[in-house]
Amino acid sequence: MTPPAPDLRRVIGLAGGTALIVGITIGSGIFRTPPTIAGLVPNGLVIMGLWTAVGLISVCGALAVAELSTMLPRAGGVYVFLREAYGDAAAFVFGWLYVLVTTPTAIAALATVFAEFLLNLLGVAAGARAVQMIAIAAILTLTGANVLGARVGAAVSEATTLVKVAALAAIILGALLLGDGSVANVTAGGVVQGGGLARAVAAVIWTYDGWIAVSMIAGEVVAPERLMKRIIIVGMLVIVTLYVGANLAYLYVMPVGVMAQQQEAIARTVMTAIAGSVGGAVIMVAIMTSVFGALNGNLLAKPRVAYAMARDGLMFSFLGNPHRRWATPWAALLVQGVVAIVMVLVLRDFDTLTTYFVVVEWAALLFAVGAVFVLRRTMAEAARPFRTPGYPWLPLVFVLGTVVGVSAIVWGEIGVGNFSPLYGLGIAAAGFPVHHLWKRLQRSR
């Protein structure tokens, strides 16, 4: 008789988990989106208010997720929360979107940005074929590393996260202490239009997106009942501090109008002004490392959704079999890598994709955090090593803030003729009849 496949190993500690949440969230956004936001919202105070508000809303949601992660410390994260709170259909819809559409496309986008930054650093024209080949090589390399073990992937996250945190700290301290700037830049600015504000909200939310993925590796965290809350809380505080500090540094060094005209990574422009061309080149390497780390974090954490779905009979069973030697969800990793490579070959519009991601993923987050309210009632006796402080008000802040933010994004994008948020929601709705067909197929077998 063939022995049963082992489960995933609990090998990720506090440092690895914190590095993962910071590494997944801080990718290309903080280096790429500030000029776009400055063009949409020509007012320094409004820009700082957006980054601070979305950061606080994210922290409120993260505190609720910390309760859920310590209560249900299993691989799959959001998928597990949705299944326990709302049933198989809601969990299936989230999972099939995550596995087949949003995650591979996010990975493809990060790999593409990494390739563009690498070619820019080398002074080589970023031709489409060269970008695709480098992006595919990055996906293959990191997929292989994560098949070899969660400890390997976590080690990559720790190293790259250390670099990106150091880089952002250098930008913040360098700009505020050595930069030839002015506080007046932060308080100056023009009139903000509603449509521009809505699109700026989308860009900020996109940059914060990713912190929820750390819940997906709860099944591999050592003593998750004790560590998950620390990982999530410490990680979110680091992220919000670095994001708000970096934007303060950018605005201190240059007026919002000048920021809006930046064509390359704004961090390179700031460091070049402070430390010359060498400083600009060094920070560009750090930016590439940041994107590479975010790519690795996505590849590490997100296949756990397919793994958990397969174990529950909601996806093909082979995806739920860990590797017998390395105890990793190898099949889910390989499928995710293949689909991401296909996305690299067809990827065209990064900005359109970001609005698609934001609406679909944050709509799922809305229901995930809402699971706190449902499970407080339906699983009232379950052990909760960590309870959301300020309940129910802090989770409500996240729910209300997310509803307002996502509604503003949809309204703003439709106003400029971009219907990608509606396409994403349409694909999500289509998941319900797909789930019905899947259940019928299972019953017929």
What name goes with the CATH superfamily? Amino acid/polyamine transporter I
Provide the number of structural domains. Answer: 1
End-to-end separation in angstroms reads 23 Å
What is the CATH C-level name? Mainly Alpha
Total of DSSP H or I helical runs spanning 4+ residues: 18
CATH architecture: Up-down Bundle
Averaging pLDDT over every residue, what do you get? 82
Q: Which geometry do the CA atoms define?
A: globular
Number of strands: 0
Order of helices and strands: HHHHHHHHHHHHHHHHHH
Query: Could you name the CATH topology?
Result: Amino acid/polyamine transporter I
Low-confidence stretches: 1-5
Radius of gyration: 21 Å
* Helix percentage: over 70%
Largest sheet report: none
Can you tell me about this structure?
- The chain has 445 residues and is an all-alpha fold.
- The chain has a single domain (14-444), classed as Amino acid/polyamine transporter I (Up-down Bundle).
- It is 76% helix and 0% strand.
- Helix 1 (14-25) crosses helix 8.
- The chain is globular, with a radius of gyration of 21 Å.
- Mean pLDDT is 82; it is low at 1-5.
